[in-house]
Amino acid sequence: MVESRNARLAARMADLGLTREGLAREVNRVVAGTRSPIAAVATERWVYLLLSGRTRWPRAHYRAALEEIFGCTALDLGFIPPLGKPGACRRVPTRSKEVDVDRRRFLYLAGALGAATVTLPDVRTGARIGLADLERLRAPLHELCVFDQQHGAANLVGAATQAGALVSDVLRHGTMSGRVRRSAYTLQGEYMTAAAWFSLDSDNLPSAGRYLDRALTVAAMAQDPLLQGDIWNLMAYRASEAGNWNEVLTIAQAGLASTGARREPRIAAIMHGWAAKSYAAQGYQGWSTRAIGRAHDAVNKVTQPPAAEWLTFVDHSEVDAFASNAARRMGRYREADDLAQRAALATPPGRDRNRISRTLMSVQARLGLGEVDGAAEAAETPLQKLPALRSDRLLRRMHDVRKEFAAWREVSSARDWVDRFDATTAA
User: Fold this and answer.
1) Could you tell me what percent of the chain has a pLDDT over 90?
2) Quick one: which H or E segment has residue 118?
3) 51: exposed, middle or buried (C-beta count within 10 Å: 0-12, 13-18, 19+)?
4) Which of 25, 199, 256, 343 could cysteine-pair with 204, CB 3.0–4.6 Å?
5) Comparing C-alpha atoms, which of 338, 381, 346 is closest to residue 362?
């Protein structure tokens, strides 16, 4: 008997951009996520046999995986069951079912601000998942990011990982099209990058590294260049906090060569900013200045609203913050102070944590100039905001500022600021 090529399966694979190797990998992933006692051993050769028509009716656990990946029945995929095969015409749900919401909630702690709750949708095994369902799953991410921008990320890591685990359950058990599945991977990656950022803001570099490693894998499956750009950004931030400036520069250069940087000028701007900071830390003033200029040029090329939430903070004020940091590292304190003040004034409402960070840049630049009274005046606002601050990273920076003020204890304004800082942190 001459086998006929499975044109339906080939067409479905083309629609999703799946290669033979890619489909085998997806089938193994789906089978591994079930309770099937049979090991997942799909290979590129196995997919070839499906496409050639030599395998006309795959084994049950493989059929179920293929049906989940493509969102249709095995018959719709061009497979032909043996005559009299029971269950051959099992139907796969094709009508979108609304995802129910049960009473499960998770808490993120807000310290003195009290606790807040976010409702998580309950996705039942086998439910048909659509883009609207993913938007409901994304809602907690927005709430967490708003809280983070206002107060800091302490205690938010657990909430992000719990929500990300729910998205993982959706990917494992829900039925969805290829387009929706890629969007779900993007959402899972967004929760992983959020957890990485919350770890960084909590001054936990090892935890951030673990989440970024996982996010890189998910971003590759999502094929999302904007998500990959976010990961590059956080990887550079983590390396800078560790003082590994060669790694920062390597990451920035890789990010600039990425698809995301070519498509979205905001990503290019942030990568030029990291390059400038790395150059400054290593004493390359000219290269640092040129990188800042390229960052501003990239921001000037922005014509569309940001396509991802993390890109909303990338503007000229963010580049000014990079430039201030670079200038202070090179001993250009007056320039650093001017840039920090400009960046702080341009910070949008609701981003108190960023405004405090930029104000502290101004404080440190003024102390570098020996303008202690001016530095103490500028540091008044961060001190007043300190009780509501939920950022271990910024708290560490304020302790660094305290040490710098302590070096000027003969100046009454410095001595007074140190005393009030100590009293506030001891409370």
Assistant:
1) 52
2) strand 115-119
3) middle
4) 199
5) 338
Instruction: Burial-class residue 285 by CB neighbours within 10 Å (0-12, 13-18, 19+).
Output: middle
Angle, helices 157-173/131-151, rounded to nearest 10 degrees: 170
Scored b (16 or more CB within 10 A) or e, 106-132 reads bebebeeeeeeebebbebeeebbbbee
- For residue 88, the model assigns a pLDDT of 44
Which residues on adjacent β-strands are paired with residue 119?
105
User: Structure pTM?
Assistant: 0.72
Give the pLDDT of residue 328: 97
Residue 106: phi and psi, rounded to 5, are -125, 155
pLDDT tens across 330-366, in order?
A: 999 999 999 999 999 999 888 888 999 999 999 999 9
Q: How far apart are CA 6 and CA 47, in angstroms?
A: 11
The C-alpha angle 10, 15, 20, rounded to 5 degrees, equals 45
5 φψ region: left (φ > 0), alpha (ψ -120 to 50), beta (else): beta
pLDDT at 419 over 90: yes
Coil, strand or helix: which one is 390?
coil
Which SS3 state, helix, strand or coil, does residue 115 take? strand
Chain segment 207-219, per-residue pLDDT in tens: 999 999 999 999 9
Q: Compute the distance between CA of residue 368 and CA of residue 332 in angstroms, rounded to an integer.
A: 9
